[in-house]
Amino acid sequence: MSDRNKKLLFGAGVVALAVLLIVVAYLLRQKTSLEEPVKNTTIGMGTVVSETFYGKDKSELKEAVTMTTDLINKLDASRLSWRVKGSDVWNLNNEHSAYVDTVTFQCIEQCFDVSSKCNGVFDITIGKLSTLWNIGTEDARVPSEEEIEEALSTIDYKQIVLLPDDKGSYLVEIGANQMLDLGAVGKGLACDRIKANLELTNVKGAIVSVGGSVLAYGTNPVYEDGTWNIGIRDPFRGDTDIMGILNYGPCCVSTSGDYEKVLEVDGKKYHHILDPRTGYPAESNVTSVTVVADSGTISDALSTACFILGYSDESLALLKEYNAEAIFINSNGQVYLTPGLEGRLTKTNGAFTFMHDEP
Amino acid sequence: MNLKFLKKSDIVLIVLLLVVCSVLLLPKYFGKAESGLTAVIMVDGAVVDRVALSDVTSAYEYTVPCESPVKLYISSDGVRFAYSECPDKVCINTGLLTRAGDTAACVPNKVIVILEGAKDSGAPDVITY
């Protein structure tokens, strides 16, 4: 073979290899985009539930949709709703002592733990007060001071008694005039249950929103690093507007904001996050708080507690107890991040400013 | 022809390579051009209608086939709830849906409206609120 032919052969080989690589890369990219996720949007727990599941087995992804819908409906009707006769919470509120499901028991236990770490700023025995205001329903009203005083006297998480026995029964007792309201953590608990169920399947990745409480599960096949992009609601604009995008791995994310359910009386606005110390909507130095944690029950509970506590040393200490991170946004559009979220939130609206000062 | 750095066959191969690359990339761009928005209307978990916004020449009121009277406003720019007899009016307050993935719902009447279409590359996977 001549020298010229050898060179030619070599050149052709290199080019052929390059073409092959490009084709393979293109096919791989096609493959991920062809691996369409299974999506579903439905109504559950009195809110919008949206689900996206990724994985190879389409039928398994469809099963995940059914599983999620059933789980949320059951959780609401048999466990958490204080309106549905016979649910765990209904039984507790009406009999003040009841055997409950292990899921309900663990949830109450987690809530008790959060209460004990924030001096009861978050307290699930708030039921009498929340039903008094009823914000978010057509019966919403501003109660009298006497009514608020009376409701406040029933709030005390320390009266909750948790009595597990070794036979798998879970007995809970609450004070005779107390009323539980698990509304602040119901959506986050749903996220935790969905996560536990997905772990038994081959679903590789999922992004679920139960009324704005988010479960980011497994890996996102759309991105090489498998992370998820979670939009943070713009507290000053419309329901579908965001102020930025949080890029994060598997986690649970919850947001509490004063824009959510609002009662307006004589030009004065009352939001739905009640302060169990005053009996009125919390007067916070922030307008919304987003919490990132391993558990949805915890991220839900902490977002409520941190909203009431505002951007403060107390909030930061509470978050640390649970290895949780947070985004605090105040009414001037100033944004405070905990260290673990530094560099992970990209603003999509120039009206917001990152701040770095301590509380 | 006697080029020092490139032989005739090399040039042929390079041109061939460029052609192959562009052919492979073509569908990617053509695919994106078709991405219009479709309003998907659901009642009690079932899709009852799909309206392609690009087909809407003049805005109109759409009556949702459900028990209680619920009306939507549909235009080529987007879709929103226009009327509902629910107590909280969360559906109407959500406002106009304009981007792929935007969702509004009337929970008491079990009506959901979703805008389907290709999402912007910067769009989030989900929104926390």
* Biggest sheet architecture of chain A: 9 strands, mixed
Overall CATH architecture of the largest domain in chain B = Sandwich
Strand fraction of chain B = 25-35%
Work out the helicity level of chain B. Answer: 10-25%
Give a written overview of the molecule.
The complex is a heterodimer of chains A (359) and B (129). Chain A is of the alpha+beta class and 359 residues long. Chain A has a domain at 87-173: Orthogonal Bundle (T-fold), CATH 1.10.3980. Chain A is built from 9 helices and 17 strands. In chain A, a hairpin with a 4-residue loop joins strand 14 and strand 15 (334-337). In chain A, helix 2 (58-80) packs antiparallel against helix 7 (186-198). Chain B is 23% helix and 32% strand. Chain B has helices spanning 8-33, 90-93, and strands at residues 38-43, 46-52, 60-63, 70-74, 79-84, 103-106, 111-116, 126-128. A 4-stranded antiparallel β-sheet of chain B has the order 2-1-7-6. The longest helix of chain B is centred in the first third of the chain and has 26 residues, at 8-33. The radius of gyration of chain B is 24 Å and the shape is elongated. The model of chain B is unreliable at 29-34 (pLDDT under 50). The interface between A and B is large, with 50 and 37 residues.
Concise account of the structure shown:
The complex is a heterodimer of chains A (about 350) and B (about 130). Chain A is about 35% helix and about 25% strand.
